Amino acid sequence: MPPLPRRELRNLVRKLGVAARPADQRDALATLVALCRDSDSRTAIATAGAIPELVELLGHGVQAGVQQDAAGALMSLAMNAANKIAIADADAISPLVKLLGPGASAEVQQKAAGALMNLASDAVNKVMIAAAGAIPPLVYLLGPGFAALVQRRAAGGLMRLAANDDNQVTIAKAGAIPPLVQLLGLGSRAGVQQKAAGALMNLAVNADNVVSIATAGTIPPLVQLLGAGSSAGVQENAAGAVRNLSANAGNSVAIADAGAIPLLVQLLGRSSPAIVQQDAAVTLTNLASNTENAVTITAAGAIPALEQLLRSSSDVDTRWFASRALVFLVDSNAGSVAVIGTAEANAEAQEAMGALRI
Fold first, then answer.
1. N or C: more exposed end of the chain, with fewer CB within 10 A?
2. From CA 62, how far away is CA 352, in angstroms rounded?
3. CA distance 223 to 109
């Protein structure tokens, strides 16, 4: 739907008020929901004063359909960086959290969870959302009794909240890890798997969580998601989660035993995004601290793949991680440098390795 002139937007916003006729209010709300899907309209809608009016429509006593549309409009508006702050400043977080509860319909819950997920990409909002008590109900919405869209948005909200150190502890204590692991399974939709893997990836930044996540049986399903049958987004978050788990030496054998090594070598290839290549290189480096793993990694063809990545990637960080992985593998495997390939390639790898040792 194309953007509306400012005067028409202001008229729509006025019709959102509690004094408006219910029919006019519903029509105005439906029009704003449609307009919010257009990125160019989101700033204009906020400027027209819609955010405080929409927040009022989240409150107790408002019809569920109106709450659903108001939360949906705020969810779309919160895709704009400035609107994230304005929505929080309008005191939207607390009523949105209340709409996550069992008294709300599934449609209202998923829109409220989506709004909080989008708001939670702002660092200050992460703290405010957690302080408003959002984490326990978001964990509750991960359960098997909820629709995939509710689970995906709840997991997405937890993923973004878990980018905060304090929230990582709170989310784990709220019991999020087991249901997130369940959502990695083949019975879940790709969008749910992606957000669940992302939440576990961020939770695994915390050292205590790394142990809890591995103990919950996370490694085999995460490794399975590294395969070619997964979507690009699922692979990316699964690779990030495995990378963070591999930082714990106790997990290195479990990750290798789950069949991760050949999959990680495949992810070094040109078809993978740079961030996935980096995660694969770092994980292989961490796994290579185990002598048996180092032999297996070399046998899986990692050294030629890393050498190719070092030579072909235009991304500086990717080249650095590739050279670092080569350091560990060459140091762990006597004579492995000869496997790298041409004399020119050997010299480039050795130069990178020498620089890293300084």
1. C
2. 64
3. 31
Give residue for tokens 């304090």. 166
Do 126 and 161 contact (CB within 8 A), yes or no?
A: yes
The single-letter DSSP state of residue 206 is S
pTM: 0.90
Question: pLDDT 10s digit of each residue in the chain, 358 long?
Answer: 666 778 889 988 999 987 778 888 999 999 999 999 888 899 999 999 999 999 999 998 889 999 999 999 999 999 999 999 999 999 999 999 999 999 899 999 999 999 999 999 999 999 999 999 999 999 999 999 999 999 999 999 999 999 999 999 999 999 999 999 999 998 999 999 999 999 999 999 999 999 999 999 999 999 999 999 999 999 999 999 999 999 999 999 999 999 999 999 999 998 999 999 999 999 999 999 899 999 999 999 999 999 999 999 999 999 999 998 998 888 776 444 333 333 344 444 444 434 332 2
- Is 297 within 8 Å of 287 (Cβ atoms)? yes
Q: Which of 224, 222, 227 is nearest to 200 (CA)?
A: 222
Question: Among positive and negative, which fits the CA dihedral 337, 340, 342, 344?
Answer: negative
Q: How far is CA 233 from CA 55, 126, 157, 197, 306, in A?
A: 32, 23, 16, 10, 22
DSSP annotation string for 310-329: HHH---HHHHHHHHHHHHHH
